Amino acid sequence: MRRGKEESLDRFHPWVFSGAIASMPSGVEEGDVVSVESSDGRFIGVGHYQIGSIAVRILDFGDTEIDKDFFARRLKEALALRQALKLDRADNDAYRLVHGEGDFLPGLVVDVYGKTAVVQAHSPGMHYCRDIIAMALTELEALEVANVYYKSETTLPYKARLDPVNEYLVGGFDTNIATENGLHFHIDWLKGQKTGFFVDQRDNRALLESFSDGRSVLNMFCYTGGFSVYAMRGGARRVVSVDSSAKAIALTSANISLNFPDDNRHEALAEDAFKYLDSMKAGEHDLIILDPPAFAKHRSALRNALRGYQRLNAKAFEKIVPGGILFTFSCSQAVSREQFRLAVFSAAAQSRRRVRIIKQLTQPADHPVNICHPEGEYLKGLVLYVE
Predict the structure, then answer these.
(1) Within 10 Å of residue 359's Cβ, how many Cβ atoms?
(2) Are 101 and 376 in contact (CB under 8 A)?
(3) Does 222 qualify as catalytic in the annotation?
(4) Which helix (H) or strand (E) holds 75?
(5) In which domain, by residue range, is 15 found?
(6) Angle at CA 92, nearest 5°, toward 86 and 96?
């Protein structure tokens, strides 16, 4: 490390940036496990090397061998947290088992859906470790995982030229139905976004359910219809789900039918969100959910993203019934909580509506944030009462 650049690592932040590296042995390749030393030769930790601004993701601040036993220990610790949270139970078998840096496994995501674990690698190092990770998952006591599906074609750095293949590493297709808080969902880990379902909105969906009784609900960017299904169970008199993807709309309709067969309260539409809000009559809905995909995946897109959030929320403010409730979210890690709140505040001022924050939302406990890595807090949400 360059002199003085080890300060963040001494506070156990798990990233080594490329500009902080003074020298590196020849022959080091992407995905290799490397040791990191301070400028005076003091050992700092071991991690996976990769090309890019984040050059090393620290796996351990001790001199630890990164092998199957290492992953078995970390996975056991991650499972212990989920067991303490009582997430694996008869009415709930969908949750995140590994949340990257939050579970001290930077570059790795594992979501569990019943007896299937879906593994995503976000670094070359985790890609090369996929087989021992899969084996360690199936050998975990108290985790009844029989199938491990690897889904990293879109999450690995394209410059690494790894040519990942989405495939079963262990087992095969069993069932794609998982249960969340007593509701059933088809999980499309083969072709769907992320690992097939947004488990990070579980608690927020449950909160929405408590607000839904007797309301007309509009679920924008519905994807699999998670919020819509909860609204139906909450007693909504009408639910409209909108997504630009026809495949998402088909999946939403399938999930509604799975839980509420022959229920005519629900309508699903494959339309662009902004166009739909433009054409929608004012006063049609008194509960609106705005859960768009990440508007800013990188800081270079931040300005346009904030404009997008302001424009989207302004349209919702214009159309919602007085006394209505708006659930609005940003999942862009590049957008801070303060920046998102300012964009929503600007939208409220633009629409000249009186708006009060009644709840501030974030990601659930199975998406923990390493206290030394605040960047792990990515999901931001507000529940707003609009007069």
Answers:
(1) 14
(2) yes
(3) no
(4) helix 68-84
(5) 7-60
(6) 70
* pLDDT tens, residue order, the chain (387 aa): 999 999 999 999 999 999 999 999 999 999 999 999 999 999 999 999 999 999 999 999 999 999 999 999 999 999 999 999 999 999 999 999 999 999 999 999 999 999 999 999 999 999 999 999 999 999 998 899 999 999 999 999 876 788 899 999 999 999 999 999 999 999 999 999 999 999 999 999 999 999 999 999 999 999 999 999 999 999 999 999 999 999 999 999 999 999 999 999 999 999 999 999 999 999 999 999 999 988 866 777 788 889 999 999 999 999 999 999 999 999 988 899 999 999 999 999 999 999 999 999 999 999 999 999 999 999 999 999 999
54 and 73 both lie in a single domain: no
Q: Of 129, 222, 331, 372, which residue is the catalytic one?
A: 331
Q: Establish how many alpha carbons lie within 13 A of residue 260's alpha carbon, considering only the half-sphere containing its beta carbon.
A: 19
Note whether 252 and 301 are same-domain residues.
yes
Residue 357 CA, chain-centre distance (Å), reads 23
Strand 33-37 and strand 43-49: the pairing is antiparallel
Question: pTM for the complete prediction?
Answer: 0.95
Where a domain ends, among 60, 79, 97? 60
